[in-house]
Records
---
Amino acid sequence: MLTDNFGRQISYLRLAVTDRCNLRCQYCMPAHGIDIVDRKELLTFKEMYRITRVLSELGVNKVRLTGGEPFVRKDFIKFLEMLSFNDKLEEINITTNGVLIVNHIKELEALKVKTINLSIDSLDKANFAKITRRDVFDDVFKTLEALERSTLNLKLNCVVQSDVNTHEIIDFIELTKHKNLAVRFIEEMPFNGKGQRNMKEEWNYNKILNKIKSNYSNITPLISDKSSTSHNFKVQDYKGAFGIIPAFTRTICDDCNRIRITSTGMFKNCLFDNGVFNIRDFIRQGANNDDLKQLFMSIVKQKPKNGFIAEANRNNDVSESMSTIGG
Ligand code: SAM
């Protein structure tokens, strides 16, 4: 089992399958994109399968696939099929911008995929285009509606950006009135290629919640898993729910059960650390599965108590894009 020095059991892997993305979200990367790595530096699907298998033998039972945009990587669906054979995995979840998936939903339903986190930061076509620097709102919304009709769980990820989409917070909550989905508002983080957030005004967890509370008097908190990244609520009688993720204020670290592996195989114990060990190089130097197990058991012991300590221990600033880290 993978247990860190604070007694936290690691059971959840976030795996970035690529650093490439078909959008250019303002809060994630510069307009010209990020310096993508050479294809041979990316983990192959076979390597990803192997890493996941070894981790699952150590108690990791949930995997989130992310990127970059996972669906831009060729044969991603085949990889999902492969991963679904891992009998030790209970859940495969995917974070996606939804641009390319509307025709794949039936295939996803047949696999071990349980939840799709669809990133959508505006419900207004023009504002969406401004944020993402791409005119694809209609495709994303079609995906949203198709997912809502599917058997998959649907969560929407909405990064709250000062002066950009804060006026749409209530519109997002209203989407939960008739739709069976969960909207999750995420605090903006500095992982955008510059290392500084764009915000004119700080929109943190409390400010987001207060804004919602000032509009509704009938909100009830929901009971969530201990390791949940979001604090969840529901407007009474609304079909869906909403949550807030204190990604930047980092009040959720005590119950963290997550590790990350970037698309180039960098193992991260925390979103805010700058990588502990390169698994890709270790595998390509000939490590066997027992070597990998020993390695994982030892490197999780370096997991910092929280994201503030991880950030303080970095030897560089937090300027990478989330597309490189895998959000
Ligand atoms: N391309 C996929 C997508 O758009 O969902 C997966 C990768 S994306 C990096 C994963 C998540 O990270 C998205 O929900 C995105 O909104 C979020 N994200 C990216 N940059 C962020 C930032 N600076 N602060 C907060 N969330 C961010």
---
Amino acid sequence: MDLAQLTSDLDALAVETAAAIGAAPDIAALETIEVEVLGKKGRLTGVLRGIGALPVEDRPKVGAVANRVRTAIEGAITGRREVLGSAELDARLRAEVVDVTTPGRPIRRGSLHPSLESMAEIARIFGQFGFVVYESPEIENDLTNFQLLNIPPDHPARDLWDTLYLDVPGHLLRTHTSPGQIHVMRTVKPPIRALLPGRCFRYEAIDASHGTEFFQVEGLMVDEGTTLGDLRGLLDEFAHAMFGAGKRTRFRPGYYPFTEPSVAFDVECLVCGGVGCPACGRSGWMTILGAGMVHPVVLRNGGLDPERYQGFAFGMGPERISMLRHGINDIRLFLENDLRFLGQFR
Ligand code: DAH
């Protein structure tokens, strides 16, 4: 081994390696070359092993060539790594591209239950007249559900409310929202404009127009000098907002123990416009609610002096109002939770 031979071996290694680096297809191949040539057991080290056979004065010369070759190879590897690295990054970016213009998956929008939608609309309309929503309990007792509302034990009017009693003695599920009248009168001072929406329960044979569970919205106004005319005017405004401006309305005599006089409030039939049709039983009128002037006994039970205060009350079924507005013919649909039915109210 002489100086010329070693030098030319090193140059050949440099040329060969430079070509291999230029042809390396990816970072992994480049790293293989790096280990093969520059590694501890690599080819450069292999060539330099011949250095010991050289005369002492020649050794630094070979060392200088070897250093030049090593530096050149390292430089070439660094350069190639940058090229390959950015090519790989480009490829990844291209493969993982997200098309932000692709339409998203549609979100399934929920909707209000028609009973709630109806109650919200009722509250919105009466809210414009200053009525405030109150809550009152679903569990009452004989006193609050009946007696304080002027319905004594064994009164025949109790037949109107088939009652579900709890096995907790004295407790029952409210059959109507009217007990809320007593709670409100005992809680807030007149002038009172209260709206009491809530769930009611009755021991009913279930059919298309009767359920054991349903909602009611109770209204109560108490002030000095409140009249039946005020009730009529308010209900007219309500009917026009709910069923259409210009709809005719009427009071019919009714009976409830907690009001005197009591009325039923009718609106011109939506389907036949007053001419007579199956929807309204050919009368031309739809009954919307029961109402009346609060009975003096009830005012007194609410802690108010009937000589000073007068009031009116009304009670309506939001399901019934929803049925009339949307042409629904079976109240059982409101409790079945069939999405095909519920999804129609958006
Ligand atoms: N509570 C009655 C019922 O369940 C509805 C009702 C009628 C409420 C007349 C009232 C009213 O406040 O004045 O049938």
